[in-house]
Write a structure and sequence with these properties.
The protein has a single domain, classed as Spore Coat Polysaccharide Biosynthesis Protein SpsA, Chain A. It is built from ten helices and 13 strands. With about 280 residues, the chain is of the alpha/beta class. About 30% of the residues lie in helices and about 25% in strands. It binds 1-O-phosphono-alpha-D-glucopyranose. The site of 1-O-phosphono-alpha-D-glucopyranose (G1P) has 13 residues, from β11. 1-O-phosphono-alpha-D-glucopyranose binds next to β11.
Length: about 280
């Protein structure tokens, strides 16, 4: 059973300055809901009810968001405005939140390793809240839920992937793998942000992972890679060499909300397809 989900949220969000000068980028709203709440809802729907934030300076608004706000709630008690808080209250009642600080920004791999004391010796999910994943129709499961099912079958680390235009591979971790059908690949190669002409494919990793706990051992000995940062992609490549890592072309729609274009696209999509439909 996977019960825990880690959210690395220590990053600065410089692409959204000045909006993110004193506000965490994860709190930017897509219509009326902060980006990070979409991710936490996806985790909770997949049964990952223990959420760990690997956080940093200036991120207190995230902890406050996932907590009761007595004054506000007292003010609107009994009014029609209470309905706006139904979803967040549901999360607060059903999810355990914990926080640990990453006090040096040494990369995504380092952020994940920082969460080890709160994860321990069990498989866990990772959500990069910048990647917003939306179900395209009512019956579709969230991406993490799809991945948890695969984990229960294969018991190894799994990364979510998507085909991207060839000239964009340098923005992602990119895999090569043996196809096993149904959008599933057994990873044979994995490179963090390769040059366009050196990429092993156009199958890009997006911000959803299931990791087995031996990843921590691997991360401890992973040297800094691309951009001088400890990369989760490099640690996963070690796992793939020694055992098995799967890559899964998920069902659903993903928006890169770490970029202004993706953020605006997500906002328009969610406004039309979620907000307006109530
Ligand atoms: C991170 C990972 C990369 C992955 C991407 C998905 O990069 O290092 O492998 O493809 O997330 O969003 P970042 O976007 O944080 O630079």
């Amino acid at each position: 059973m996977i019960r825990k989900c880690l959210f690395p949220v220590a990053g600065y969000g410089t692409r959204f300055l000045p909006a993110t000068k004193s506000m965490p980028k994860e709190m930017l709203p897509i219509v009326n809901k902060p980006l990070v709440q979409y991710g936490v809802e996806e985790a909770a729907e997949a049964g990952l009810n223990n959420v760990t934030f690997v956080t940093g300076r200036g991120k207190r608004a995230i902890a406050d968001h996932f907590d009761t706000s007595y004054e506000l709630e007292h003010q609107i008690a009994g009014t029609s405005k209470e309905e706006y808080l139904v979803d967040i209250r549901h999360l607060i009642d059903n999810v355990n939140f914990s926080y640990i600080r990453q006090n040096q920004m040494l990369g995504l791999g380092h952020a994940i390793l920082t969460g080890e004391p709160l994860i321990g010796d069990e498989a866990f999910g990772v959500v990069l809240a910048d990647d917003l994943c939306i179900q395209e129709n009512e019956g579709q499961e969230g991406v993490l839920e799809q991945m948890v099912k695969l984990y229960n079958q294969f018991r190894c680390s799994i990364v979510a992937i998507e085909e991207v235009p060839v000239d964009e591979v340098n923005k992602y971790g990119v895999i090569a793998g043996e196809s096993m059908g149904d959008g599933l690949y057994r990873v044979t190669d994995m490179v963090e942000k390769p040059a366009v002409d050196e990429a092993p494919s156009n199958l890009a990793i997006i911000g959803r992972y299931i990791l087995t706990p031996d990843i921590f051992e691997k991360l401890r000995t992973t040297p800094p890679g691309r951009n001088g940062e400890v990369q989760i992609t490099d640690a996963l490549m070690q796992q793939a060499k020694e055992g098995c890592v799967m890559a899964y072309k998920f069902k659903g729609r993903r928006f890169d909300c770490g970029s202004v274009d993706g953020f605006v696209e997500a906002t328009n999509y969610c406004y039309e397809n979620i907000y307006k439909k109530g």
